[in-house]
Amino acid sequence: MAKGTGGQLKQKLSQSLSTWQIQVMNMVMLPHAELAERVKQELIDNPALEEGHPEEYDTIPDEEEGDSMTAEEMSMGDYADIDDVPDSTLRRYYEGQRVANEIPFAEELTLQESLNQQLPLTNLNEEEQKIAAFIVGSLDGDGYLRRTLQGLSDDLAIYQGVDISPQEIEPILEVVQELDPAGVGARSLQECLSLQLKRRERNEVTDLALEIIDRHFDLLSRKQFQRLAEQTGADDDTLREAIQLITGLNPTPGLDFTTNLHDTLMTVIPDFEVTEQDGDLIVTLHNGDIPEVRVSRDFEQQMGRSDDREVKRFVRDKLDSARGFVEMIKQRNNTMISTMTAITDLQREFFLTGDFALLKPMILQDVADRVGYDVSTISRVTSTKYVQTDFGVYPLKQLFSEGIVNESGEEVTTRAVKLLLKRLIDEEDKQNPLSDEALRMSLKDEGFDVARRTVAKYRDSMGIPIARLRKLW
Prior knowledge:
Layout: H1 2-14, H2 19-29, H3 32-45, E1 49-51, E2 90-91, E3 104-107, H4 111-118, H5 126-137, H6 149-160, H7 166-176, H8 189-197, H9 204-215, H10 217-221, H11 225-232, H12 236-247, H13 253-259, E4 265-267, E5 272-277, E6 280-285, E7 293-295, H14 297-303, H15 309-346, H16 348-353, H17 364-371, H18 375-382, E8 386-389, E9 392-395, E10 403-405, E11 411-413, H19 414-426, H20 436-445, H21 452-461, H22 467-470
Parallel strand pairs: 5-8
Antiparallel strand pairs: 1-7, 2-3, 3-4, 5-6, 8-9, 10-11
């Protein structure tokens, strides 16, 4: 009993961090651009800070003396949740050898953000727009609505205090289904394809394709083309064109939306730079436009001459705050560099070649074990950070992946399996695409024995449709 109590007490004490230590961990979470703004604002707010190389000071604030952070204390589990950090999805768009602060990235709105921006352009009133926004928030990542209208009605009553029947929700859902991308808000694949066809220019082929989807979807799913011809009375050429039109539609409009935004650009400044020099990998913390700061000697000397008690208290508070801020920057930099160095050591082959197939399986715990920090600390360092390499700029999260063991007993990343799976699909005969079972067997021939449902999961995660919808894709 005593041993158990002691363990709980130790854990409780390790999480009892000071305000200053919490601020250090919050600063670790900041990406480059946000840290630059934070430092510039601190220079404005605190007259005891000035730009310049940090000088040798006793940097811990007097009231926090003795609170310097140990590796064990870097856990922040009870104080911050990484999910609270804004994390926009960014598409890599690297141009040659441009300097770090000029590397453009395409910023991708989420599906929900895009749809919500379109809602004010509809003919819905303010109350109906709120209900439509609730529907939008209920969509899955692929753009489908898998909640029943009754379920939406119940949730609106419970969480929004809106009393509305499923029948009254239906016309609002129909407005959502008119938004872009086409097919969004569908409750089934059949409805998704139908919604897309209804936006096409009406002609003989489009009308036939719509008839097939709305009235003979089961025959199409079973590839009973002869019966389709009999049921629709269409000639072979028209039927072939209609089927080609259908197979060219997008079964997952939400995923397609995410992977095809290239227009809106923003600048992302990498937090790290990893370069190769004579076979060695050099890790640099990119400071860019982040000013170096130090405690102002002039402020301390000039203001310290006053005999006024309030002035002395003001000066002491500002100096303590300045010293603490300088130390926080130092702690952040040390944590960042040690973490990135561990990642570079673990993924040496990738940083030397830029080949994602050479990424080794790596989880947060692997890095934590190397540097002696808590996993939560590693999560905060890597969650919103980017690294510039000799081959491009990548989010650190992209370097982490679970692993599987191939037939040779070697552990490889799931990313490597996905790359091979994509190559198999890219090279398949589009007239006779490979089923998930056939893909599983092909992967097995390459030394990767994975289950068929795993193949399906990987395929879905890459936005690749099932075999029958990839025909003439």
